[in-house]
Amino acid sequence: MSIDSKTLIAASEKVAAFFERTVDENGQLKTRDIIDDVASVYKLPTLLLTTGRWQLCHKVLDDIKARFLQPDGDFISWPEKAGLGRKSASPRLQLFWPYLNTWVAMASHRLGRFDISVPAMRYLATFFNPNVGGFGTSGPFDKASNGAKYDVGIFMSAHLGLAFLYFGDMDKAVATGDLMGRFVEKQKNLDKYFLLRVRGDTGELIEELPAEDLAVYYRVDRFKPRQLYFMLGYPVFFLYYLAQATGDQKYIKTAEAILDYLLTCDESFFSFSYSHKCAYGASLIALATGKAKYREMSARVAQYLVSLQTEEGTFDLGMPLIGTLDQSAEIGTWLKEIGLAFARADGK
């Protein structure tokens, strides 16, 4: 039997309660050896907001503002350092520079913390690439190279596109949604893989892969297991919300095309924690279309995620503590959202 909304919401509450016990009166994690890295808490405000823990959310945001928000609106763990390592100890967050910023910016904006979200938004706006309509993955738009300096990815563009939808900047949100459509239309080898990036100056898909350890950030292979499926999950729920905002159902059609590709991927898709964003997106497209295949897709992944939850409330992902906290806050958020989507679809 498919997992029900009550089970999903209960799992979300369980992980939120864990964080409630783990955050001190100053809004900092009690695990002291990781608190100086913003990577330990940047997703936490969204979980606390989603589960109704608004007072604690304010405290965590107060601490993020005091220790990590920079005068230019960026969020940096170690301002005194130089180079990529100043962002975070996480190599992935160094490569996807505005990713953590956007999590904090959206949560702040939704909570009415404009003292954080407005400067963060101004900084994030510098990543918009007017040539292709999306956002740079690793750095702001570079006029000198006409955008060629930084690739534009479907994942990061969807993330920032959703943020600017919250900020009420429909021009950037719609331009990004239209880019999602072009990503789908330009794919020539969907029998093998889905390409994730375009050139920042021409908008052409990037087919050449970089060094092997970075290749996973450039495409999702159909037949290889445990791909970074979340890179295609984020565009799905961004497109759902953009369709709500504009009334244009072409965005739902694009989201369906992405989900249909994911449904052809390796079976590990359904038993891999990095399918979490896909499960959330599928729950919303199931709500929008009434199509059972997307509801089942979401439910299968969600069921797997719930099976990973420990007694204390976190999710056993075999990661170092900072990764466990990062992913537990995110999975808890998506389980609550999926549960709500299922409940709405069921008329509850």
Q: Care to describe what's here?
A:
It is a single chain. Helices cover 53% and strands 4% of the residues. It has 13 helices and 6 strands.
Short description, anyone?
By secondary structure, the protein is mainly α. The chain is 53% helix and 4% strand.
Topology overview:
Layout: H1 5-22, H2 44-50, H3 54-68, H4 91-95, H5 99-111, H6 114-125, E1 128-129, E2 134-135, E3 152-153, H7 154-166, H8 170-186, E4 193-195, E5 197-198, E6 219-221, H9 230-246, H10 250-262, H11 276-289, H12 292-307, H13 321-345
Antiparallel strand pairs: 1-2, 3-5, 4-6
- Proportion in helices: 40-55%
Low-confidence stretches: none
Tell how many strands the DSSP assignment holds: 6
- Average of per-residue pLDDT values: 97
Order of helices and strands: HHHHHHEEEHHEEEHHHHH
The description of the largest β-sheet is: 2 strands, antiparallel
Discrete helix count = 13
Radius of gyration: 19 Å
Q: Which strands sit side by side, in order, in the main sheet? A: 1-2
Shape: globular
Q: Which percent band covers the strand fraction?
A: under 5%
Distance linking N and C termini: 18 Å
